Amino acid sequence: LDRKLKPWLLEINRAPSFGTDQKIDYDVKRGVLVHALKLLNVRTSDKRKNLVQQKAEAQKRLYGQGTGKRLSPGSSEWERKRHSLQRRREELKERLAQVR
Question: By C-alpha distance, which of 48, 58, 38 is closest to 99?
Answer without folding.
Answer: 48
